[in-house]
Amino acid sequence: MGLAIPIETSARHIHMCQKDFEKIFGEGRTLTYKADLSQPGQYVAEERLSVKGPKGTFENVAILGPFRPETQLEISMTDSRKLGVPGVIRQSGDTKDTPGCTLIGPAGELELDHGVIVAKRHIHMTPVQAIQANVKDNDEVFVIMESFERSLIFADVIVRVNPNFALAMHVDTDEANAFASDSKPTGVILKLFGGRTYNLQKWADELQNGINRL
Amino acid sequence: MGLAIPIETSARHIHMCQKDFEKIFGEGRTLTYKADLSQPGQYVAEERLSVKGPKGTFENVAILGPFRPETQLEISMTDSRKLGVPGVIRQSGDTKDTPGCTLIGPAGELELDHGVIVAKRHIHMTPVQAIQANVKDNDEVFVIMESFERSLIFADVIVRVNPNFALAMHVDTDEANAFASDSKPTGVILKLFGGRTYNLQKWADELQNGINRL
User: What is the pLDDT of residues A178-202, one digit of tens each?
Assistant: First the structure.
């Protein structure tokens, strides 16, 4: 049996740069560690903030530490509709031409002019795991998962390889709700058709026609 | 090219029996036609109601006509969490041992003791289309769909065949948000592995191992 990839759900959260954090939490303030996340070195902070868009507000949004070079809010497609901003699917860090929003903390507000993304689904893994799975950084693959009455195969899944990563596929809350939530869902990688359904549709069609002719 | 199946999103809605409708809208009242749905003979009514669960309420819920023998509320997995009821995935009409909720209309309230389901994804088609796709009523298949940056293959999709159906796959709002919303999404049927990912995972694993050895 190959690599069984744990599938984890990311609820809406924000990564912040120190400068933006101090603007809304107060000068000299910093993140307070609360709990570890599955990726080594990443943690949830005690601090929370509100994010406001043209149509709605989310309160009590989790801040993940440590600080990053740029502030980035990650939401689901459903969240984007509630906030009233376009849902733009991007890899983490690729925030050019993305929508903004208002961040509200105990010491002030900050107008972000960009940085709101719907995270593209992705797998974190180490170089050793990448060799085992025969994939490399930035490959796109299918992930076949198993779920009672509601299984899915995810296409367009980006592989991210880094010695500091732990093996996990990250999906958002919409994607998690589209399958039934098993307690410990896992998936299997299939690296074919560039991880895209475009060619697979044609292949399936020809295969199905072949089966029909038998 | 085979059958391109239009993929339609069902937002939360209710089907009602006449008796339950009269209890909350008033004796002698009936459904008022507002607009056709894609399935022949089915329509959205002018009337709307509220549904209440232990944790939350949805107002302005659409009622679909005509009346059915039994009242059935169809919600998404996300909705089930907001209402505070278990999300039970069922085919339409299979409501035994499902949760209930409170229905609120202009003339009263009604305590449903069961009938709240998360609809299992399904395809409506005619007998002629079933022959064309080489499937029969109650078959389970995969549906491969195409969507920018966020494609999916749905597993566990039930085929429903009836001369009165129009060709369409119905997914709920969570499932629709898990792919990016194209204006006219379509899918292609693949009838293999009983439409289940269980055996596909093993097959993919062996295939991937074979590819890795090349």
Answer: 987 667 889 999 887 778 887 777 7
CB A122, CB A158: distance < 8 Å: yes
Question: A200 and B144: CB-CB below 8 Å?
Answer: yes
Sort out which chain B residues have CB atoms less than 8 A from A78's CB and list them.
Answer: 78, 173-174, 177
pLDDT at B200: 76
How much is the pTM?
Answer: 0.87
Cβ of B77 within 8 Å of Cβ of A177? The answer is yes
- In angstroms, what separates the C-alpha of B171 from chain A's closest C-alpha? 9
Residue of A nearest to B197 (CA): A146
Give the closest of A2, A152, A212 to B153, CB-based.
A152
Identity of residue A94: D
Whose CA is closest to A37, among A65, A59, A4?
A65
Instruction: Please state the ipTM of this predicted complex.
Output: 0.85
